[in-house]
Each structure stands twice: as structure tokens, then as C-alpha cells.
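This entry is set out below.
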Amino acid sequence: MTKARKGKKAIVVLTTLAVLAGGAGAIGAVAPASAASVQTISGLLQGQLLSNLGDIRLPLRSLFEAMGADVSWNSDTKKVTIQKGAFSIIMTAGESVVMINGIPRTLDRPVLITDDKTPVPLRFVGDLLSALFQPNPGQPASCVNEPTFEQAMAELKSNFDERVADYLASLWDPVVGGFYFSKSARDHTGFLPDLESTGQIINFMRESGMLQSDAEFLTKLSAPVRQKLVTFTQTMQDPGDGYFYHPQWGKNIPDARRGRDLTWASDVILRKMNVSPLYLLPSQRSQTAAKPVQIAAAGPVQIAAAGPAYLQSEQALKDWMAALPWQANPYSAGNSVNAVARQIQAAGLGPAAVAYLSSIQNVETGLWGNGETYETVSAAMKVALMYQLANHPYPYAMKALESTIRVAQIDIPVSQITFIYNPWSAIAAIRKTYASVGLPVGFVETLAAAAPKMILKSSQKLQPLRLPDGSFKYSPGNSNNYSAGVLVSLGGNEGDVNATTIAFGSMLSSIYAAMGLNNVPIYDSSVMTRFANTVSNAAPIVKVQP
């Protein structure tokens, strides 16, 4: 656009603002502004905007105060709040996403605070003004026409940039050969890289678009890095029971931790590196009594019977599942089942597991536990894997879908990032259980109608969890220092691998999977090239005492 055309556009806006300020009462949104207000707005435009036609921006505080709105600045949170009746705008310094009546909108660049002024792009002021003066001030202008799925996804993706990949690459340990949970774990003694964080970053490379296929792990990552990953993983496997144990945690760990580490090691890290475990996995071991065998040069090693006691019979499994806190903490109960679901299925106990789960399902909501809450939806997300592995359609799928849609759109702040991601993962998991029989009537249509608003709400809830380095923290206050019952970091106001990969790669891919669409990643191979170079050239980590 030429300077002359921009100047004409500014004059049109000036005229529009003057009309709005002088005659808004006719529209019915606000009382008419005084002649002084009109003169003030005119002066603001002519005196402060047209001096720089290359980037026309309005001084937000002066403009909206001239229209009778209250404008406040919070120096602690770096937020500007504009309030007029039921209408509100919240803008954060350094961020490009603003909230209009709770709905996220994206500027062409981050909000800039200079000399106590907040200039915003000329075209964006039109959106704000139309929202302010519309007949229903409780509904933002962006929702007069319902957003499309593509528009909502664009808003969600605006939360992410290449800093996420840079943050994850910075957690690599070139000596040990894995990735740390967070910066505090990386920088302090007493912590080592862990399998789950390493596996999550490996999955992120595919989900984000850094790699286009699993085969590229063998070409995009250098041979020394791949060998470090393999050695790091294989040396943790216990020849006696086939599980993988971290030296910093030992064997006295919860079942959920043991099961998760088994999955990350065997199904993700080693599989992506195209390498097998050194010893038989628990699912491959004989159900007969333990017996000594010769393994390499290690001499006789006692091979344990397959799996823990609850995998030895249907009754033992039922007793174990019945002891889980399905009413008091359904999310925890579902997570316990999810962590060992593959072992349950490998032991031939999948049908028994889904029979018990179906017997305790809440048929009113399609979830587990009481009511429609973040916790009960999260339990359903975890439990759905067992139905998928057992090739059994998820019971009461439409009930569960409707409950999940309602929970995803509630305005209750989330206490952890998984409560934003889990509804999408739950729907995707439920959908997978119907792959061979066809979805229930109305499933696709119901989800399609609700998806844009659900996505916008997910984007809104992510805002308090985003940090300046591109990472995300697990909770609004601090990142968790425990994961599945073990100490993984110092915690504090920092991002972590779990939260960051959930927010970016896992949530985006789950949304596409829930909708039955192919994943549309954000990154490309250029980001992978930078990531691989950072990892390959990483210097040894120098740690300090906590």
C-alpha cells in the first residue's frame, strides 16, 4: 500500500471515529461523546498518526479514554485492560494475541509499550471499535460471524514459534545422551536426563513437522547423536525383568512410572532409532516360572515371570483395577490403567480390562467418576487406550463427546496444562476405537459444530502458561517438580518438556486426529536442521548445587 493510500485510509478512520464518538447513542451501545471527545480523537489522529505513514498505529489509551472507557496498566503482569460496560480488551506487552471479551485475536506484531503509550495497528482498531459499538456488547465482533476451523487453528498456532524447538534442543546432554525435563534439572546436580522427556522430544520432531517421516530420524540426526540415544536407553534395561530403570530413581518406583518408561524406551526411542532392546521385554517373557538363562557374557541371569502380580490372572487384574481411586481421583485411576495398558493387552487380559472398565463407567456422561469435570474427561482420555488396544468400541461415545465438548468450553481456569490438551486427546482416542465399525451417528457433525469455539477456548487457556523462552509450564503458578511419582526438577516458574510438547505438538496433532484430518504441522526441515546442529555441537553441561 502506498503512503498516499495509507493517508486516505487514516482520514477515513478519522471520519469514522468522529461519527462514532458523536453519534454512538443512535447505535445504542454507548452514550454520545462530547464535542471535546471528537476534537480529542481528531487531534490524536492528525497529530500522532499521520507523522509515520509507513506504519499507522493509534495510541490506544488516549483513544479509548476519549470514548469514556477505563484503561488500566498492571506493571507486574505487563497487561493493559480496557473496560467499558460489558466490553473488555486485555493486551500483554510483548505478545501478539489480545483478548476481546475472552476471545483471542492476533495482531500483526507483538504489543509495544513505549512512553506509557500502547500503539496498535490502524486496521485492528476497526475490530475493536466494531466490538465496542455493536448492539450486543457482550459478544465480540470476531464472533458475529462464527469462526471457521481454519481461523480458530490459526489463532491457536499463533501461540507457537521456533523458540520452542530452540528451547527443547537446549536440554540435550551430549555426555549422557538424553534430554532433561527442564532447565533446572539440566543445570543442577542430582538430576539426569530421563526417558520420558527424551521420548517426548523425539515424538515432537514428527508432530511439529521437523521430520516428515520416521526414516528421517536416521538421516537428519547425526550418527553420534543417534548412538548416544541408543546407549542412553539400552543401558537402563534390566536383564532380569526387561523394564527400564533410571540410575537416579532405582527400582522402587510406582507402576505408572515403570510402565511409562517401558513405553518411551521401547516403543519410541529405540523404535525410532531402528534398534532393538538388549533383552526381552516384559510382554515377551514366558508366563512360566522364573528360570536362569545365559545372556551375552554376563553369566546366568534370573529371568522373572512376565509382569507384576496383577497381570497373572483376570481376577488379579480386576482386584488391582478395583482398588484404584475411580471416584476420589478418576484421572489418577485412568492414568494407572493407561500406563500399563499395552502390558495388559500383551498378557491376554484386554477383554477382561474393558469389561471391568465398562461396568464402572458413568453412563450419564460417558466418562469415569462423578459429573463433567476436567478430571473425569482426563480419565476417559486415559482409559480409551485400553479400548483401542482391545479393539473394542468405546461405550456411550456420543455421551462422552457431548460431555467433553462442554468441559472444553467451561471458563474455570485450568490447574494444569493437560486439562487443555486432554479433551482433544480423549476425542481422538474415542474416534480410534471406531476405526473398524464406523462412528456413531451424529459424532462428526456434533464435533464439527463445536470445534472452532473449543479451539479458541484452548488457545485462551494456554496464555497464562506460556513463557518468554517459548516454553510452557505445567501449571499457572510453577512447573511440577514431580512426574509419575519421581523427582524430575527443582520446579519453580520454568517451562518443562512435558508441558511444552503437550501444548505444541501433541495438542495440535490430537485436534487434527479428533477431526479425522491429516496433521498440518507448523515447522519444516529448516527448523530440524538448526535443532540437529544445536544438539550435535552442544558443549558438556556444567552443573551447580541446588
Summary: The first strand starts at residue 57 and ends at 59. The chain has 21 helices and eleven strands.
